[in-house]
Every structure is written in C-alpha cells, then in structure tokens.
Write a structure and sequence with these properties.
Number of domains: 2
Strand content: 15-25%
Helix content: 25-40%
CATH class of the largest domain: Alpha Beta
Distance between the termini: 7 Å
Bound molecules: (2S)-amino(hydroxy)ethanoic acid, manganese (II) ion
CATH architecture of the largest domain: 3-Layer(aba) Sandwich
Number of strands: 15
CATH topology of the largest domain: Aminopeptidase
Largest sheet: 9 strands, mixed
Order of helices and strands: HEHEEEEHEHHHHEHEEHEEHEEHEHEH
Radius of gyration: 23 Å
CATH superfamily of the largest domain: Zn peptidases
Length: 415
C-alpha cells in the first residue's frame, strides 16, 4: 500500500455531524431510535441518506431489494466493488449506534478517499442494507444482493406476511424486484463492516478494536401452543387446557436445556401473543417467537431437534396441540483471513490494540461470506448495552473504528 495512504484519517467532526443528523430521525427518549424496516422513521432515514449522498456529490444507487448506497468509481469500468456498510433499520425502541455507525463511517471513508484524490483498483460503495434486523425477514437486503433470497423467504417471513407486503409497497418494492438484486462474485472485491460490539468483551479487556473471526447462525420458528378458551372463573383448574402453561413451561425448559447441553448456543423467546387475550378467558392459543443461535452448523441440527422435541413434550404435558412454523435460517460464517489481516495491520499502524472476537449477533456479512472476502470490526459498547436506548459507544471509539475501516479499505483496494 503506498506509504502516503497510511497517514490518512477520516474527518471526525464531519462524521459526528452526519451521525447526529441521522440519530435525530426516529429518535426516542433516552437516546435511542425506533426505525423498524419500512416504518415512516426508517423511510425518513433513507430519504436523509439519499439527500446526504447527493448533496455530497456521490452517485446514489438503489437496487431491487431497496439496498441504498453511495458509489465512488475508481475510473475503471471493469473494476470490482469493495462494499463498506451496515444498516439504517433498527429493532423496535433500539439504539442509535447499531447499524447507523457502520453506514455513516462507510460514507465518511468515501468522502476521505475522494477529497484526497486517492486512486484505487476498486470502486467503493457505502451501503445501507434493507431489513438487517429481521423485523420483517432478516438480512433481507444482503441476502438478495448475494443471490440467496428465495420466494419462499418472502412468503412466510418471521415478521408476518402482511407487514412485509405493506412495507414493501410503502418502499416501492416487489417480490420480483427483490429477487432481481443479485450480484455476481466477479463484481465484488469484498465487504467490510464497522459495528458496535453489542457485548462487554472489549470493554472488559480494555481493547480498542475487535476483529471478528466468525458470525453466528440464526434459526427462527413460530410455535403455537393451542388449548381451549374457557371462562376464567367457572372452569376448574383441572378442567382447563390453558395454552399459557405450555408456552411458559417450554420457555423456561428451553433455557435450561441450552445452558445444560449447548453451552456455546443461545435461545430466545422474544414475543408471546395470547389469543383471545383477556383477563377472564383461559388462553386458547399462545404464539411463541422462538430464535436460537449457534456458531456451528452441525450443532444447529442437534439443537433444533432437542428444542422441537421439548416443545412437543411440554405441549402434551398440558393437553395442548402444538403447531410449528419454520421461519428461516442464516448460516454461521467465517470471516476472511486476508481481510482480518488488513484490519490487524491497520490497527497496528494506528497504534490501536485489537483482539479476535466471534460475533453472537447476526450481520449482513454472513449473507455475503460465500460470495466475496468479508470482514468486520467491532468497537466497544459501554456496559455491553444494545438493542436498547441504553446503547452507547464513546465517540473516540467510533472514530478509531472509522479510521481502521479507512486504512483496511485502502490496503485491500490498492493491493
Ligand atoms: O439480531 C442480531 O443479532 C442483529 O442485531 N441483527
Ligand atoms: Mn446491527
Ligand atoms: Mn441489531
């Protein structure tokens, strides 16, 4: 990499200004944001991103999956593209750093490269991927860009079919456009992402940068425990077929199963929906949103079997019927060694400490890992808080991350 490149740094004030403008869109009390995919706030954030791109003189691009980006050509029409990015959608009532930092830092890298007239062998693209968080599908935009998206992923999404159809309509997208967004391997030089750690390891270790080794896989189900609606006052406890008992017993037992037999996995019941849902009716049905994660593909099959068998046992224990709907999976993926080395060299040049970290969170990079070299870096989360308004990362750490992203992009883009 030309020596002159290594002294380059991003512009922290300019990046902070962009980050602050974005954080105001969909802002919630306590410093968070509420920007679920294709909500009004999310669409407003995307409008802001497009205006910001065009005001800064970059080419704005949008594909059939609604992935939005700033494009900086290297001047060679046959050159591949190095994508830097993350996502502007958030979980409901989430934090202002998750995803947003990566998108803003990616755009700041393009600004820095252009104003210093750096010529690279690759195009650079600062990307905002659609629906990373899965309030509709999950890793939707990156899966579409990677060519992994199938029609069936759009027909039974974990966020509900109706919400997906309405959201896509608001965003001007269709099943056909989604499935048209695939890019070829040859067109991509790689994918780099800066993200907050969303955990406590960097903070505890006092280390500046985490260099991600692998990203966890995620499987989702809707489990429906079905009993019988009855009068909550006149039906004896023995006569009830109470759906809440199966759902509750399963949730507790699933936690115990994973902690006992699958120590490097996690399981989560993020939502329970009761029907009919009234004080004085014995619950007839409880829909449970089940998600579980493993770093190992083989382990997934064992964990899947164990959890579904457990659900069946707890359901019959209370005389209930059980329905299970598989709502999708994202495979675990390893990060690219060359990209990891570029991140490590950038940290060393910048005098930043670094350590290898696996990711317990899912990220768009896992969609792209079989298409091109993918790498991620983490910066410390204060108290590990994320997916909450409590999410916070010191600005100095954000700037460190953006400089590592810049330096790695220069290395990989000039090789
Ligand atoms: O859920 C996750 O792991 C990520 O934040 N989308
Ligand atoms: Mn994220
Ligand atoms: Mn997230």
């Amino acid at each position: 990499m030309p020596q002159a490149f290594s002294s380059l740094r991003i512009n922290p004030d300019r990046m902070l200004d962009s980050f602050t403008q974005l954080a105001a869109i969909g802002a919630t009390a306590g410093g968070g944001v509420d920007r679920p995919t294709f909500s009004e706030a999310h669409l407003a954030a995307r409008r802001w991103f497009r205006e910001h791109i065009e005001q800064n003189g970059f080419e704005f691009r949008a594909d059939g999956a609604g992935n939005h980006s700033a494009f900086l050509s290297c001047g060679d029409s046959s050159a591949p593209t190095l994508i830097l990015g993350s996502h502007l959608d958030s979980v409901p009532n989430g934090g202002r750093f998750d995803g947003a930092l990566g998108v803003i830092a990616a755009l700041e890298v393009l600004k820095t490269v252009r104003e210093n007239r750096i010529s690279l062998n690759v195009n650079l693209e600062a990307m905002d991927f659609t629906d990373e968080e899965g309030t509709l599908v999950g890793l939707l935009g990156s899966a579409a860009l990677a060519g992994h998206l199938r029609l069936e992923n759009l027909q039974n999404p974990r966020g509900g079919q109706e919400r997906l159809v309405e959201g896509m309509k608001r965003a001007g997208l269709s099943d056909e456009s989604m499935l048209s967004a695939a890019r070829t391997k040859e067109s991509l030089a790689g994918y780099l992402e800066l993200h907050i750690e969303q955990g406590k390891r960097l903070e505890r270790a006092g280390v500046n940068i985490g260099i991600v080794t692998a990203i966890v896989g995620i499987w989702s189900y809707r489990l429906s425990f079905i009993g019988k609606a009855d009068h909550a006052g006149t039906t004896t406890m023995e006569d009830r077929r109470d759906a809440s008992l199966g759902a509750g017993a399963f949730t507790l037992a699933a936690r115990e199963l994973v902690m006992r037999d699958f120590s490097n996995c996690v399981v989560n019941v993020g939502k329970m929906e009761f029907a009919p849902g009234a004080f004085n009716i014995v619950p007839a049905r409880v829909d449970v949103s089940l998600e579980f994660r493993s770093p190992d593909e083989d382990e997934f099959n064992r964990l899947d079997k164990a959890l579904l068998e457990l659900a069946a046992r707890e359901s019959s224990r209370f005389g209930l019927e059980l329905k299970m709907e598989f709502l999708g999976r994202h495979s675990p993926s390893l990060m690219d060694d060359k990209v990891r080395a570029a991140f490590a060299a950038a940290c060393d040049d910048l005098g930043l400490s670094h350590m290898p970290l696996s990711s317990g969170a899912g990220h768009d990079g896992q969609s792209l890992a079989d298409l091109c070299p993918v790498g991620m870096i983490f910066v410390p989360s204060v108290d590990g808080a994320s997916h909450s308004p409590r999410e916070f990362t010191k600005w100095e750490d954000c700037v460190n991350g953006a400089n590592v992203l810049l330096q790695a992009a220069l290395r990989l883009g000039s090789g």
